[in-house]
Amino acid sequence: MDAERPLPCEVKVIDSASLFRLEERAGDLGLSQRLDPTWVRANAAPGGTHYLWPALWHALSHRPDVPDHVRWELLITLRTGDRVVSWLDVIPDDFAPLPKVTSREEGTQVRQLLDHAPSVREWLLREGGGSDRL
């Protein structure tokens, strides 16, 4: 972690195709904060809007082949209309080109949703699916 390095000062808004790609990329790189892409494809709303909120820089000193990356809070819109929160590690080359939220109001709304939405694990337990499905 690099506490001196400033986080991106933007909230990213992504579509489902971008979410699937980012989750798969995190898996390919062996990054620790990600969801099972199969679960994401089965549960994320196909036409949904999802958000990334920067949380911290993360470095894998034992894996110099993996660039420093940002650990993002991830707000996922599900097929059911529910929203859930998770984490997603994304390298700079992948997050830089993503569109960002353009209004303060939308950013404020995203923060409120992140603060009140259940985690994926909580949602699964509530829905009776168990967290072992991740």
Order of helices and strands: EHHEEEHHH
Task: Report the average pLDDT across residues.
Answer: 90
Residue fraction in strands: 15-25%
Point out poorly predicted stretches.
Answer: none
Biggest pleated-sheet summary: 4 strands, antiparallel
Radius of gyration: 14 Å
What structural category characterises the helix and strand content?
A: alpha+beta
Description of the structure:
With 134 residues, the chain is of the alpha+beta class. It has one domain. It contains five helices and four strands, in the order βααβββααα. The chain has a four-stranded antiparallel β-sheet, with helices on both faces. The radius of gyration is 14 Å and the shape is globular. The chain starts with 11 loop residues before the first strand and ends in a 7-residue tail after the last helix.
Brief sketch in words of this structure:
It comes from Streptomyces griseoincarnatus. The chain has 134 residues and is α+β, with helices and mostly antiparallel strands. Helices cover 34% and strands 23% of the residues.
Features:
alpha+beta; 5 helices; 134 residues; single chain; Transcriptional regulator
Fold blueprint:
Blueprint: E1 12-15, H1 16-29, H2 37-43, E2 49-58, E3 69-77, E4 83-90, H3 92-95, H4 104-116, H5 120-127
